[in-house]
Design goal:
By secondary structure, the protein is α+β, with helices and mostly antiparallel strands. It contains eight helices and 19 strands.
Length: about 300
């Protein structure tokens, strides 16, 4: 039986939940496992938890809450670490090279290069439906649709052909980017202190995610998923995860060669062309972003 993982606002605060047939069930109560009260607790026991949840999903009782009347939080309100792939779609790398007057680089595979990532802080996460305060962070706020992979097993030195076995499931992310904060003013272009990745990528609300985590077995091949982003119902990005430069397996394998990945860590796998910077368009207060990833769902946020 299929299900989705959520974190919902319970009577006593956030609770890990399972969505089955448009009803939300408290996972700890349903499985009699107190450690499953939080999503990190569920993921810490993955894949054993997955087996329990599949069994429970096949025979849910009447205690579930109507999904439409339940407030969903980010599925992982405080993930472990958020690793974000940089310039990981060929068309996006080309549009950014053009924007910054940089030469077009060849496929990094041909140069023996590996994936590279930056990190967002966990408290940058926002939920589906949240309003994001962009005006205090940037005058040129950009959007970026991304497939996000949620780690479900400790991963260290994982070979590429085994890498996807360590993914519990997938959610949707909008990697909001403060373009005007990424490079410090009054510092030379060649200075090693020119870039400011924290202000650029890790402000409050810069990582909307959700509305849920879909187990990996329900999503299928993560390298063959359609992905789209609209601003005020005008489509801006329309691509497929098959266009990644470094696919998820390569990314996870490489990250695990440097850092142990833990259950509850998240990998944002990159964004395709169509970002605002290339169009000289940016988000304004009152705008709404809607992000879709095939087999996962939709994520919607309003800007303020």
């Amino acid at each position: 039986m299929s299900y989705k993982l959520v974190t919902f606002e319970g009577a006593d605060g956030p609770r890990a939940g399972m969505v089955v047939n448009d009803r939300v069930y408290d996972i700890a109560a349903l499985t009699a496992r107190p450690a499953y009260a939080t999503m990190l607790g569920v993921l810490a026991d993955w894949p054993a938890a997955d087996k329990l949840l599949r069994a429970a999903a096949g025979k849910p009782d009447a205690a579930g809450l109507p999904l439409a009347q339940t407030r969903l939080l980010a599925p992982l309100p405080r993930p472990g670490a958020i690793y974000c792939a940089g310039a990981n779609y060929t068309d996006h790398a080309l549009e950014m090279a053009k924007l910054h007057n940089r030469p077009i680089e060849p496929d990094p595979h041909t140069q023996g290069l590996k994936p590279w990532h930056f990190i967002k802080v966990s408290h940058a996460v926002a939920a589906d439906g949240d309003t994001i305060d962009i005006t205090s962070a940037s005058k040129t706020m950009d959007w970026e649709v991304e497939l996000a992979a949620v780690i479900g097993r400790p991963a260290k030195n994982v070979p590429i052909d085994k890498a996807l076995d360590y993914v519990a499931g997938y959610t949707i992310a909008n990697d909001l980017s403060a373009r005007d904060m990424g490079r410090r003013p009054h510092i030379g272009e060649t200075s090693p202190f020119k870039s400011d990745w924290t202000s650029h990528k890790s402000f409050d609300g810069s990582a909307p995610m959700g509305p849920w985590i879909v187990p990996a077995s329900e999503v299928g091949d993560p390298h063959k998923l359609g992905m789209k982003l609209w601003v005020n119902d005008v489509i801006k990005q329309d691509s497929n995860t098959s266009d990644m430069i470094f696919n998820l397996a390569e990314q996870l394998s490489h990250l695990s060669s440097r850092i142990t990945l833990w259950p509850g860590d998240i990998i944002l796998t990159g964004t395709p062309a169509g970002v605002g910077a290339a169009r000289k368009e940016f988000l304004k207060p009152g705008d709404t972003t809607r992000v879709w990833v095939e087999n996962v769902g939709e994520l919607t946020n309003k800007m303020a």
